[in-house]
Design brief:
Layout lengths: L2 H22 L2 E17 L5 E12 L10 E16 L2 E13 L14 E14 L6 E16 L4 E17 L11 E13 L8 E14 L3 E13 L6 E14 L18
Parallel strand pairs: 1-11
Antiparallel strand pairs: 1-2, 2-3, 3-4, 4-5, 5-6, 6-7, 7-8, 8-9, 9-10, 10-11
Length: about 270
């Protein structure tokens, strides 16, 4: 079995594990969600240093309905500084990002959970790998987060860390290169997050996040994606209660801002 098929079956096993996991635990609260993300990037003329920013907006269902737009879930903004080692590898640092979160509503006690703020410093590294069939692209991403999270009920803050590792498989339909214009592609990915630090007790597992989507590239460096998202996240420190959010995500990426509509922009391979 070649590497592409092995990775595909790995992702399939992970997605099935998500389903089994939610059924095996003591309490899992289901939620309908709508997520969205806009990300813009720009490289310098030497294709080494660059900047970027992303804006995330999410909605969720209410306590007694399945409407994914009923309640706010999160809004966040992060600036990025990027260094491109090669067309297939990048180191990124977000010096400080801001998140505002309204927690899931799974039981009556959740109405006492006030929305809270979080400041986050993030370091991440990703690399692409394209063996064999050039239509396939494998990507591994490693992300380390330093998080300062507010307890809105007490007015205090806690610091902790999270490490996230993600594997993603892309397949292009209309061309052999993901960066070709007017290209359509599909993607599957899975990411695991682990909390750690002195303020993390009992349970270190944070979440498992699975995506499946289709995307389309246009204007050379812009692309849109429609995703199915399935996230299982621990609730509290005991590890016996979980929130499971499933729904649709819409994303807009601009991989190279100054390359929009320019024919030679396909040589810029910048995006995660």
């Amino acid at each position: 079995m070649n590497l592409n098929l092995k990775c595909f079956f790995f992702l399939l096993c992970i997605s099935l594990t998500n389903l089994c996991f939610s059924q095996a635990q003591k309490i899992v609260y289901p939620h309908a969600v709508f997520w969205s993300k806009i990300e813009v990037n720009q490289l310098d003329k030497k294709d080494q240093w660059g900047w970027g920013a992303d804006l995330v907006y999410r909605r969720k269902s209410g306590f007694d309905n399945n409407n994914p737009f009923a309640e706010p879930l999160r809004i966040s903004f992060r600036p990025w500084i990027n260094y491109q080692f090669s067309p297939n590898a990048r180191l990124s640092i977000s010096p400080i990002g801001y998140m505002r979160t309204h927690e899931y509503l799974g039981k009556p006690e959740d109405f006492n959970r006030l929305p809270y703020s979080e400041w986050r410093t993030t370091i991440q590294y990703f690399h692409h790998f394209k063996p064999g069939n050039p239509r396939f692209m494998h990507t591994w991403r490693y992300r380390y987060e330093m998080r300062w999270q507010e307890n809105a009920n007490t007015g205090t803050w806690r610091y902790f860390n999270r490490f996230r590792v993600r594997y993603r498989l892309r397949y292009t339909f209309l061309g052999k290169d993901f960066y070709e214009n007017n290209n359509m592609y599909a993607m599957m990915s899975n990411e695991i997050g682990i909390n750690f630090g002195k303020n993390v007790v009992l349970n270190t597992f944070n979440q498992n996040r699975f995506y499946a989507d289709v995307g389309y590239r246009f204007w050379n460096t812009a692309r849109v994606e429609l995703r199915y998202v399935d996230r299982i996240r621990t609730r509290g420190a005991t590890g016996f209660e979980f929130d499971r959010g499933r729904g649709v995500m819409f994303t807009l990426f601009i991989d190279q801002l100054k390359g929009l509509g320019k024919a030679d922009a396909t040589k810029v391979q910048f995006t995660d």
